[in-house]
Amino acid sequence: MKPGELIAKRYRLKHELGRGGMAVVWCATDTRLDRPVAVKFLAPEFSEDPEFLVRFFTEAQSAASLAHPNVVAVLDFGDFENRPYLVMEYVAGGSVADVAVQPLMPERALEIIERAARGAGAAHLNGVVHRDIKPANILLDDEGHPKLADFGIAAARGGERMTATGDAIGSPHYISPEQVSGQSATPASDVYSLGVVLYQLLTGVRPFEHDNITAVAISHVDEEPEPPSDHIEDLDPALDALVLRCLAKDPEERYIDGNELADSISTGRYLEENTVMFTGEEPAPRRGPRVAVGAAVALGVAALALVGVLALGGADPAPSSEDEGQSSSETGTKDRGRERPGSTPTPITETVESGESTPAPEPSEEEEPEEESEPSNGGGGPSGGGGSTGGGGSTVPDPDPEPDPEPEPKPEPEPEPEPEPVPDPAETPAP
Q1: Catalytic residue among 132, 150, 190, 257, which?
Q2: Whether 132 is catalytic
Q3: Mean local confidence (pLDDT), 172-192
Q4: Do residues 134 and 174 touch, judged by C-beta distance below 8 A?
Q5: 153 by DSSP, 3-state: which?
Q6: Are 113 and 265 in contact (CB under 8 A)?
Q7: Strand segments (E) across 61-125
Q8: Is it true that domain 91-298 has CATH number 1.10.510.10?
Q9: Between the CA of residue 54 and those of 49, 100, 152, 184, what are the distances in Å?
Q10: Residue ranges of the chain that CATH labels 3.30.200.20
Q11: How many other CB atoms are found less than 10 A from the CB of residue 203?
């Protein structure tokens, strides 16, 4: 191929855009419509495989039927000097591979993946699986809008599979586990590849890196990827969960196709649905959160039932005699707690007295000795009535009511119902 060469009497080559192990891409002019196009020529070894050529032209025809703003349109295909080629719309902004060399802002990374997933979803609705989504196959137009390219080529190659010598065809860094294992690619396989690209856009690195491509491909089957937040600080945990869901080993644990992934990103639904999806190294089942909520509700009902049983069991209307003594002590404690601020704390023995004036159950026989000792506290102590008379008639008697003014009072067998009045100091006889 050389500049100025006319392909199929229509496409005039201008300059080479890029090349890889599988193809070389030229910028050309469609002389009939006078517009720029991109012509991709496959490597000579592919033209020697008749089975591949049949698949290539079949899938290229399917890809040409796709019409979506996020899909690079396939305009034509053919064979020139035993070189299969595709004619595609020209996208002037380069590819995502040019910007994936360093981490992007999460908003920009999500925008690229959401639109690329829309393009993949449009293909999935038409029964077409890309099989080789990678940064180089996501092109950017003049405004930076992504477009997914190379549907026909990827499908014709039958996906990424390991050869008998252990070499990987295509892009082992972005291949899904089922493709490595030789299984058929599905829309969920494209979701996995989109997850790898999102991982790279967020972190600047790919999830699996090894010295050879065979080890990289096997890692997709055997190794769990590190969360993107291990490479980028302060990354939203929901982004970790979003990426890890796309990279689930089991295709059923991923988004089912590109449209479901795009919807989750565009609506922000991933912020809620993915934060509970992975709680550790192993992905949790999709219905796991609902089961957990049901278990919590069951535990709550059981707890309420237990509280009800305890409440019914605690309302015993007939306490025993031992419980009566305990309740009397508790009554004194409650009365002491209700004293006005600033008042002198009442001794424990007087607290029991105050309990007699409250509407409480009649004291039991165990409380009678305390009631008999109350007069001795008032009249036989150092501060009682004997102390006031022994010191002379001019002394002011104790303000506390005294049941008996004699020096050595004898305890009365029964408590006085009411305290006797305080004697007048003028009427007190001299000793």
Answers
A1: 132
A2: yes
A3: 93
A4: yes
A5: helix
A6: yes
A7: 74-80, 83-89
A8: yes
A9: 9, 34, 11, 18
A10: 1-90
A11: 23
